[in-house]
Amino acid sequence: MPKTSTIHTRIEPEIKEQVDTILDGLGISTTEAINMFFRQIIRYRGIPLDLRVPNDETIAAIKEAEQGLNLHKCDSLDQLLRELKED
Choosing a second label site near 87 at 20 to 30 A (CA), which of 18, 41, 45, 63? Predict the structure, then answer.
């Protein structure tokens, strides 16, 4: 068995409870999940999450989409692909 280190951290109880429920459903312990996360940090040589702040144009588009404004609707994937090809 490889040598291990201990990490002590403080987590909000509600967050820990939600995470524990999800991990239990996946059959993964908190320790296993943290080890997987750390291995991804090594693999990506950084945090394996998209941590960018959206620019003003993207924020405006997200707000419009959440409000259902300026959305283009298609009846099928084929229609969408045809319309994208025409542009």
Answer: 63
For residue 49, pLDDT over 90 is answered with: no
- DSSP letter string over 30-53? HHHHHHHHHHHHHHHTS-SS--PP
Closest listed residue to residue 20, CA positions, set 32, 11, 10, 30? 30
Over residues 57-78, the mean pLDDT reads: 92
pLDDT at 52: 82
Res 14: pLDDT: 97
Residue 70, amino acid: N
Residues 6 or more apart in contact with residue 19 via CB below 8 angstroms: 11, 30, 33
Q: How far is CA 43 from the centre of its chain?
A: 17
Which residues are within 8 A (CB) of 30 and not within 5 positions of it... i.e. 6 or more apart?
A: 19, 20, 23
